[in-house]
């Protein structure tokens, strides 16, 4: 994979890092990119206006980008590269940066920009990718990094709840992360996340029309001596694609069923079929050892009811009621409901039934939508929002419904929609005084949670 440039931009377009490997593309390519990104016009039907795709060509330059933590990580090339390989390489670089600087934020990138440049020097030579593994790069990185004081004061419980294991997770989940260089030398611990990303489509009648769970087991290791881990999953786990070769499937549905499962190349899964156990020797840093898929989640975490009422020719009210279906001892964080508005909307506001618990709304005039934010959504609870919008002309209820589906985003710690979990974790013994700490958690995130209105 060959890059000409790699740069990182803030949400406002400020250049945080800019590395030019081949000097064959104009130095102001970041300005070209950011202007196109902000004012995407839907050219050639590649994406609707305002929704810039991750790959595009502008002024004969190919751009590829990913967005993480309100920052844009961009690579450029003049060659016709494989899009999947480009985005995979960019994501690997993002992971490396996070492993070495800890918290992936604009402030931290600015603070450790010299380390980021050193990483980019080692990752590629003349734009050709050389090495993307944290453990192999670590001996060649000489920039000294210390643990961040603002994070080391957290309690062990806070660090367990707030640990960052990759992906687009909430701000709380990133605050406990520290750099690989500092942590691997001072700590002896391992974090394991079972992350489930939920994609659900509800019909206008509120029934589920399609559901899928994409799960992964992610290890973030700071273990000294790189010992072997022995991991055991649910004994009642059943993989549908191997059901024909196993008589252990319970027709009464008492088993946890997933459609497919795959393991990374460094996982020994010979005992998985009979004992539901695997062994792995994880490298320093973050690695994904298991990916699985299920189209039969045990239940959906949220239900939503919506109603449209026309008050006058230019005034419409939208009532949205959301109910959580998980247990009362669990809470969702960073929950948001996005309500699309008709193109004739000139103003919108919201009445929230529970403003005391930090609920807010944000009317985004340019996107023609209203976002309802719920910082903490307890289980077995219900919240209501009444949206009041004003239109420039007579707008019917059917036009309001055709504005688009209502969508939700959420993250639920210590919760699984499939029941897939880690039952036990044993670390290879390295002596009587070798006692590493270990943290395991389940996380459910919304990947695409959609409620159709018509």
TrEMBL record:
Record lineage: Eukaryota, Discoba, Euglenozoa, Kinetoplastea, Metakinetoplastina
Keywords for this protein: Membrane, Protein transport, Transport
A Pfam family the protein falls into: Adap_comp_sub
Organism from which the protein derives: Angomonas deanei
Keyword Protein transport listed: yes
Gene3D superfamilies associated with the record: 3.30.450.60, Mu homology domain, subdomain B
Protein name stated in the entry: Adaptor complexes medium subunit family, putative
One term under GO cellular component: clathrin adaptor complex
Transmembrane intervals: none
């Amino acid at each position: 994979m060959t890059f000409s440039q790699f740069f990182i931009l803030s949400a406002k377009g400020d250049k945080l890092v800019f590395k030019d490997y081949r000097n064959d593309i104009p130095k102001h390519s970041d300005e070209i990119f950011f202007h196109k990104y902000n004012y995407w016009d839907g050219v050639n039907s590649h994406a609707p206006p305002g929704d810039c795709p991750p790959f595009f060509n502008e002024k004969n330059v190919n751009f590829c980008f990913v967005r993480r933590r309100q920052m844009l990580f961009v690579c450029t090339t003049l060659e016709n590269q494989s899009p999947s390989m480009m985005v995979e390489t960019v994501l690997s670089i993002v992971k490396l940066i996070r492993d070495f600087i800890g918290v992936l934020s604009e402030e931290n990138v600015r603070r450790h920009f010299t380390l980021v440049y050193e990483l980019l020097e080692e990752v590629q030579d003349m734009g050709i990718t050389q090495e993307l593994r944290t453990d192999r790069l670590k001996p060649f990185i000489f920039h000294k990094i210390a643990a961040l004081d603002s994070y080391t004061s957290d309690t062990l419980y806070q660090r367990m709840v707030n640990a960052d294991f990759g992906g687009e997770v909430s701000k709380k989940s990133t605050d406990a992360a520290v750099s690989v260089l500092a942590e691997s030398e001072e700590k002896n611990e391992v974090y394991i996340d079972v992350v489930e990303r939920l994609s659900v489509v509800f019909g206008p009648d509120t029934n589920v029309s399609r559901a899928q769970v994409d799960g992964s087991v992610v290890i973030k290791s700071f273990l000294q001596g790189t010992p072997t881990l022995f991991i055991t999953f649910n004994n009642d786990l059943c993989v549908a694609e191997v059901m024909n070769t196993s008589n252990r499937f319970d027709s009464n549905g008492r088993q946890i069923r997933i459609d497919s499962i795959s393991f990374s190349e460094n996982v020994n899964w010979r005992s998985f079929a009979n004992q539901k156990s695997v062994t792995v020797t994880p490298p320093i840093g973050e690695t994904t050892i298991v990916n699985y898929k299920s189209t039969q989640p045990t239940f959906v975490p949220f239900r939503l009811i919506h109603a449209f009422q026309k008050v006058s020719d230019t005034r419409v009210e939208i009532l949205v009621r959301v109910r959580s279906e998980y247990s009362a001892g669990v809470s969702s964080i960073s929950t948001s409901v996005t309500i699309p508005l008709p193109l004739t909307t000139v103003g919108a506001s919201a009445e929230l039934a529970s403003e005391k618990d930090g609920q807010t709304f944000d009317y985004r005039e340019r996107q023609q939508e209203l976002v309802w934010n719920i910082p903490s959504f307890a289980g077995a609870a219900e919240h209501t929002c009444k949206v009041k919008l004003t239109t420039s002309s007579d707008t019917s209820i059917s036009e309001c419904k055709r504005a688009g589906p209502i969508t939700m985003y959420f993250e639920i710690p210590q919760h699984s929609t499939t029941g897939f979990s880690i039952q036990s974790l044993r670390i290879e013994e390295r002596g009587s005084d070798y006692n590493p700490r270990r943290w395991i958690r389940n996380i459910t995130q919304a990947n695409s949670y959609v409620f159709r209105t018509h």
